[in-house]
User: Fold these one by one.
Assistant:
Number 1:
Amino acid sequence: MSLLPPALSDLIEAFGLLPGVGPRTAERYAYYSTRHDGDSPQKLATALQALGGGIGYCKRTFALVPAGQDISDLYNDPRRDKTIVAVVAEPFDLVALEKTGQFKGTYHVLGGLVSPIDGVGPEQLHIKELVKRIDEDKVTEIILATNASVEGESTALYIQQQIGDRKLKVTRLARGLPVGVDLEYADQITLGRALEGRQAV
């Protein structure tokens, strides 16, 4: 015999699928949804339903774009320097760097990091597309803005190997970022200093 209505159990299970959400947090989120008088639960449900068909990926940078849009507005912005590319693991890393207001180049989203233990190899990331962009956009500098983790370092090293002997500057974010902290959770001052103090690899 279940102690909870199936609808509530299903909601707890759904919240539990989110990264960083344990069983107790999932229960709190679900319980809040049942007792909240406003229209927050309906807004959440509507937003989740619209998510699948409302998001696409830029065919050039692999950043998030509205569904049906092929190229991101940021890449198409004539004020951005296409010869400088910051390479990030995930779309929200791009957002974090952009909030510093200090980067005027463009981005390339890998879609993850090389992690054999998780079954993620280089071929599953957008590394070939990055190398193609380097040639087509006549890139002069690549900023490897991956996390300071084993996976981030391995990915950065693999990218350097793929770049080969192309004549461009390869830099890494300065170590103002604490080890183990994802870019999206770093504050803007720390990220800004890391951008300013990037070093040649």
Number 2:
Amino acid sequence: MDPRSLLIESYKAAVAAVDPLVILPQHLPKPPKGRTLVIGAGKAAASMAAAVERNWPADAPLEGVVITRYEHGMPTSRIRVVEAGHPVPDENGEAAAREILAAVQTLGPDDLLLALVSGGGSSLLSLPVEGISMTELKQVTKDLLKSGAPIQDMNTVRKHLSLIQGGRLTAACKAQVLALVISDVTGDEATHIASGPCAPDPTTFADAVAILKRWEVTPPASVAKVLDEGVRGIRAETPKPGDPVFARCENRVIGTATGMLTAAADFFAAHGIASAVLGDSVTGEAREVAKVYGALAREVRTHDRPFKAPIALISGGECTVTVRGNGRGGRCAEFLMSLCIDLEGSADMYALAADTDGIDGSEDNAGAYLGPDSLARAAAKGLPKALAFLENNDAYSFFEALGDLIVTGPTRTNVNDYRVILLTR
């Protein structure tokens, strides 16, 4: 198998290992004495709902609604799927979130709330607190996205502007709660995944204010007012660890980047290639992380340390991009753009970076492929210098011109990014 095909197939194997239709059924509970209400939000919400339907007893009550990103839905019969805005929330998500909160409040002690939580749920399950409009919440979200703030910081702010996140969904429910969670964040803590609608929140209003200041985000006046009221104790905090409401709630993480990386390593082993898993929690600016990985690849190539080629250097996690230009491209493409410049066409080095949800940022590609001939092919096409694309945050256009975008469409799962550098000798 040629290097390009090998990398693409390794990505497919990684994604298949965290398919909700495969991993979710073994975690389903027995039906309760009363009703079972299924709610959910995230890029994997529709496939998680479908997995529940396919494995739930036909004679047991089942109802509910889940929210997923536009074009991420799939057919269901007992659980309604709503499509809404991501990464910026919209009115469809707000209306569905309001419906979910109202339905949860009808449950009693004999009922079960089965929550299906996955990455992307923070924007999809958006229900602003009183005093904040959806327009204002959108603006804060856009500004945080542009700032380069990590997802944990973004979610701390969003929890304190929400009626439903930061454990407030569990607090609104009198039934037993089981949240099945597919993690897209480093550390796999339920409080950070989709802003933890069913998980205790250790952060505070003061933390949210500090984060906006740190990332130089000036919120609308109404948002600043809500946060200030929270700091002064006029508004109630999110429920914290140790709160009795969580005694009847379990947050169970069923899909992680570790599982995805293990599957990729197994794939390479089956093809006679050793691999080194460099971690499932890699963060930082995509272009800077790429330089570190480039240095590691050169060390392997030149000195056979700390690994010996042929080898696949695999990692997961979520990098960030501080947007300064006006080009196109998510964090995976930006990582590869920087790596392309750093490696300078080094022979026998190939790479792929792609988001496991099939969407790199807000573009239509999952990621891209990089070969040792990428710079030469770009020059032959008369493209500008690679650095110009990077400085304009326009990696998408570079790889599109080379025909090297990886386009899969929605995968309906999400455990964050998959990166691999393959040294063939």
